[in-house]
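Readers outside the structure-tokenisation community will struggle with the description of the input data as it stands. What matters is that the chain and its backbone geometry are given together, residue for residue. For illustration, here is how one protein appears when written out as sequence plus structure tokens:

…
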Amino acid sequence: MDPLADQFDVVDSIQRYEKLYRIGEGTYGIVYKARDRENDEIVALKKVRFDHAKDGVPVTSIRELRVLQSVNHPNIVRLKKVVTGTKAESIFLVFEYCEHDVGRLLDSLNSSFTLSEIKCLLKQLLEALVYLHDRWVMHRWVMMHRDIKMSNLLYNSRGQLKLCDFGLARYFAHYPSAMTPRVVTLWYRAPEVLLGTEIYDEAIDMWSVGCVLGELLKSEPLFPAENEMECLRMQCNLLGSPNTKTWPGLQGILATSNLKPPEQPLCSNLRQTFRHLSDEGLDLLSGLLSFDPETRFTARQAIRHPFFNERPLPKACEDMPTFPSSHNHNPENNEHFSQKRRRHGLLGEKAVGGGSESSAGRGIKGLMVSSKALVQQQGGCSSRSSHRSSHFPALDARREETQRRFGEAFGGP
């Protein structure tokens, strides 16, 4: 019997489902649109791939199964069943079917979403995160998604947004515990993760939400960087330069650095970039994109923000627009949209997941010190009252080696 079948309730055979056509593929699975032969229901079938796991079972698949079997929320994609294939060690996950992902949909639209539609989408995403981040607080455990991006936001014909792909999700306790910094797709990655901290919390999800909101408003990504250093530059160009006053947690990161800041600190361009956004909308966006994770808005703070109470009000789900399905019978056409996203691992499961480091970048270690010349400056967004506790470990010997390698390019000593 397959290890997944041993750990989880496998209730049916794949013979129950008729595969219609492939709609996506990632490092850890191929996804098909399929029909349930017993009730004619359309579902999404995800075939788990075992060739990327040392022990045969991808840890992302086990993690995703465990998480999805423990959650139940209208804005989180529903895992219906686990079924066996015709061959040994062949497992399929049966999900509810959604016609679109928001990233592909946004790329294919001739016009952007209206502000009331954006509010509807954002509110649904925040509802899912309030559920994930707050559900286990009473037990001193919190869940992080760790890969929020446009292509992990599904959209169905009823105007509902569904958060999907929980392969990187983690439960964590509210005390310091090291975790991998190799999480979150680059364009949506929080600055503390880019700086290599291994102790972080659900605030990294909220930074990603800010990136999603900005992308919905602009109809293009906020930080479409080729590598980690460029991503940090883009963040500072838009938001201004943080310093140890506006981000006290930087002190631990900068403590071992001898790099000098540039003579010209960067100022925020957020208002100039979003000229037509109301003051409340700008306040929400800047609160989500706060460099300091301690002052970054939580999901509950964000969903209670006055932005949602000013006109135009969020559109009701039943009034949201519908679109022709992004999935069709020609796999080549399915790959047509979002080619730039795909190159940077922004579609499907190729995004992160434990493979080799991005060929475009130098990896997290290669960026540790280059970012310091960007962050040790004056200016940046205003400080908010602290509502969480975060920890940032000092740089280790490997990071000091990186300082020597990149120091000259970034105005070293």
The first helix runs from residue 3 to 7. Confidence is low (pLDDT under 50) at residues 1-7, 256-262, 329-337, 347-413. The two ends are 60 Å apart (CA to CA).
